Amino acid sequence: MLTVCDLTVSVGPETAPVDIVAGVSFGLAKGEILGLVGESGCGKSMTSLAVMGLLPQPGPRVRAGRVLLEGCDVTQLQPWQRVEAGHGRMAMIFQEPMTSLNPVRRIGDQIAEAVRVHEGISGAAALVRARELLELVRMPDPKMQLSAYPHQLSGGQRQRVMIAIALACRPQVLVADEPTTALDVTIQVQILGLLRELCNRLDMAILFITHDMGVIAELADRVAVMYAGQIVETASVDALFGAPRHHYTRGLMDCMPSRNSGARRLPTISGQPPLPGSVAAGCVFALRCAAVRDECRVATPPRLEASQGHEVLCAFPLAGGELP
Predict the structure, then answer these.
(1) Which residues pair with 311 in a beta bridge?
(2) Where would I find the ABC transporter domain in this sequence (predicted)?
(3) Host domain of residue 166
(4) Would 110 be classed as within a structural domain?
(5) Which of 38, 120, 230, 317 is geometrically suited to a Cys-Cys bond with 245, CB 3.0 to 4.6 A?
(6) Does 166 map to a domain?
């Protein structure tokens, strides 16, 4: 459905670019949910904006790589060109619905606008379709909510509206950028369940971006772990949580509280992710890795296949998920 090949996003002048996303590659199959996980500032949202063609201008730009949707490279197309070329089959759910919805327009009009743009139907027919979309995302009393304003809805209801807008063009690929971050735990569970149901029902692929490993374990089929603009580990959910091979992935898991944590202090990963362009050579995680060696500071780590479908960007990966 979607193939991202060596995607590099840069800032700064052409003569001295600074890469904030460096050589990212992944694929999405029909009906699959891929979780993209990592700390804040690791390049997850920038990757999603580059895939969608929504990088702020002037500012970051796609310097290299390809984003293939239905076999067509869309990195060189403007948003309006994507619509004209029929590439509206990729949609996005943003992190905070209250800042994404227009506060002075009714919910029905905002959903209908997306329908009219992508399907070219009349206003009345678009409103009918808007009601159907609200029913699809299980909005309570969808007919009445068409005339509501965003401030009259709860956080969970606003996120359902955002999902309805994203589904308006019948996407084959849905990009969800931390859609449950601002929601309480109960509503979060409902939204995650809704996304899984829609994925199965509509047979679409979802790229789900989060920093929450617990959400990934519950929702995703495969996981790509991102650090400092690079994908450092990719595996199925079972393989990753059963035996993480990258030291950063293991550190993220150790930071998670569990029923067995008790009153003990949770371990943390010391330091902060490096600033873009500050790592001249070697592994980007070397400054924070508990198992760093001299070679890690000078040589670019290889991308190894730990097992079928399980890749890790590390010269000295973990064995069986245990720290040496």
Answers:
(1) 234, 305
(2) 2-253
(3) 99-170
(4) yes
(5) 317
(6) yes
208/188 Cα distance (integer angstroms): 14
CA gap 81, 118 in Å, rounded: 12
In whole angstroms, give the CA distance from residue 47 to residue 236: 20
The mean pLDDT of 142-166, rounded to a whole number, is 92
Res 115 pLDDT > 60? yes
Structure tokens at 40: 């804040």
Cβ proximity of 37 and 178 under 8 Å: no
Number of domains in the chain: 1
pLDDT tens profile 85-114: 655 688 999 878 888 899 999 999 999 998
Q: Are 216 and 210 in contact (CB under 8 A)?
A: yes
* Closest listed residue to residue 276, CA positions, set 8, 73, 86: 8
> pTM for this one?
0.91
For residue 121, what pLDDT is reported? 82
**Cα gap 72→87, rounded to integer Å:** 9
What letters, b where the CB count within 10 A reaches 16 and e where it falls short, cover 98-125? eebbeeeebbbebbbbbbbebeeeeeee
